[in-house]
Amino acid sequence: MRVLVTGAAGFIGFALARRLLARGDVVIGVDNCNAYYQVSLKRDRLAELAAAGGNRFAFHELDFADSAALDAALDGTRIDRIVHLGAQAGVRYSLENPQVYVASNLAGHVNLLELARHRGVEHMVYASSSSVYGGNTKLPFAVEDRVDHPVSLYAATKRADELMSETYAHLFALPLTGLRFFTVYGPWGRPDMMLWNFTRRILADEPIPVFGHGEMHRDFTYIDDIIAGVEAALDHAPVNDGAQKAGGSVKPHALYNIGNSRSEHLMKVVGLLEETCGKKAVIDFLPMQPGDVPATYADISAIQRDLGYAPTTSIEVGVPSFVRWYRDYHGV
């Protein structure tokens, strides 16, 4: 199978591309390698993919929000399926740079929908986010819940992606699956996320900023479990049979939560980091940040039922695994 993976230099895109190459697929990667976080990490991921894939891995450094550039780069390239993981990430960053989110997460998503439509792609899987649940207080979050009260622009763009995808499934019978990711972490992770930031600071004896005065809960999901779910989704396109899919569509469009289905107290994770780093953290307790939510917790019954998804990695295993990788990568 020939799979286009956007965000191939990013955390989840890299991990998925590596998995697809390992099983023998051809991967066409797209990423603009922007400087939202250190570009050297993205280059190192791409080097790993090139070494693993050989001539079964092709990479195009471009901005998929530029439809002309995207079409030109992929002209003549056969694509069977798409996994659209590229996006401008980050809840807090969206408060400062809204136009970047409009270009990447809205215009960019439409460009991939158009590409899938005109190429007759068999299936497109795309990244949504647990942030779409916004101010919901009912836990765990289920795909049947209303999601029309986003608390950040990032969340609003991800919900808009789901709505645009529903339109394309309706108008063009394009098979689509949206995955609402819950706090993904693990080796090769993102420097802007909590685990990386806290590990760096603890090892450097710097204070760690703990928002919400530590009274926050997150459904931390290890990267290997996430990739198992993305792979299962990619291999099972929704059928255009008029039956209701996960998320409520009667078109070939499914929505799934993809998490660990355990909401962990933030301070428990801090304790695991301290234990693995061999150092006590200096904690700077701070109020809740604008755009943040106090808790996330995934109801994964739909993806378990339809795709057999079953996460296996607890934070007691996953957090030390990340810290070991981090220390090895940085030589600290």
How is this structure best described in words?
With 332 residues, this protein is an alpha/beta fold. The protein has a single domain, classed as NAD(P)-binding Rossmann-like Domain (Rossmann fold). The chain contains 11 helices and 13 strands. The strands form 4 sheets. It has a 7-stranded parallel β-sheet with strand order 3-2-1-4-5-6-11, sandwiched between helices. Strands 7-10 form a two-stranded parallel ribbon. Helix 1 runs parallel beside helix 2 and helix 1 crosses helix 8. It is globular.
Question: Which structural traits does this protein have?
Answer:
332 residues, 11 helices, alpha/beta, two-stranded parallel ribbon
Give the strand line-up of the largest sheet.
3-2-1-4-5-6-11
Strand percent estimate: 15-25%
Distinct helical segment count = 11
* CATH architecture descriptor: 3-Layer(aba) Sandwich
Total beta strands:
13
Order of helices and strands: EHEHEHEHHEHEEHEEEHEEHEHH
In total, the number of domains comes to 1
Largest sheet: 7 strands, parallel
Low-confidence spans: pLDDT under 50, at least 5 residues?
Answer: none
Structural class by helix and strand composition: alpha/beta
Which outline best applies?
globular
